[in-house]
Amino acid sequence: MPKYPESQGPIDRLDRRIIEELRTDGRLTVTELARRVGLSKTPCQLRMKRLMDEGYIRGFRAVIDPVKLGLGQIAFAEVKLLDTGDKSMREFRKAVLEVQEVEECHMIAGNFDFLLKVRTADIASYRQVLGERISTLPNVSSTSSFVVMETIVEAGD
Questions:
Q1: Contact 51, 19 (CB under 8 A)
Q2: 96: number of Cβ within 10 Å
Q3: Closest by alpha carbon to 70, among 125, 115, 132, 117?
Q4: Whole-prediction pTM value?
Q5: Final residue of a domain: which of 61, 81, 98?
Q6: Same domain flag for 49 and 112
């Protein structure tokens, strides 16, 4: 897990400890969380609520094993658009949200415009998604793929 700078933002050392504990185990009870960070239950609960209200903690979710669900193939697709005007970018952004196999989409500063993390069952499925869904998104000029051979670290690990 990345370490966060100690001196940035309006949160203090205790807030950061709460965040780190919850990143490790989001199912902690408030009582256990308070014990781990050295607070009593009510102040810990108030801090946690403030961190959620202010958007530092955006939510809680189960970390699913995609391989066990038959989604073991990961590929990254570089996407270059025909143009990067506001209208083209909006159209692409809206449409890419509809491609369920796209797990992440990042706008990139570089030789291409977007980097997509795509998860499918296998390489044949990826080829189909790339050819029929991603390449046909609005304003796509070209794509380039990088197929993952082994995952070393992934979010949620």
A1: yes
A2: 18
A3: 125
A4: 0.81
A5: 61
A6: no
> Which residues form the domain of 32?
1-61
Give dist(CA 84, CA 73) in Å, integer.
30
Joined tokens for residue 148: 């993952």
Q: What is the layout of strands, in order, in the sheet containing 114-120?
A: 102-107, 114-120, 73-81, 140-147
First to last CA, the chain: 9
In this structure, is residue 153 part of a structural domain?
Answer: no
Q: Please check whether residue 146 is in contact with residue 98, taking contact to mean a CB–CB distance below 8 angstroms.
A: no
Structure tokens at 141: 């000029």
Distance CA 34, CA 31 (A): 5
Residue 66, in any domain of the structure? no
DSSP per position, 11-63: --HHHHHHHHHHHH-TT--HHHHHHHHT--HHHHHHHHHHHHHTTSS------
Return the SS3 of 65.
Answer: coil
**Tens digits of residue pLDDT in 79-105:** 999 999 999 999 999 999 999 999 999
Phi and psi at residue 117, to the nearest 5° = -95, 120
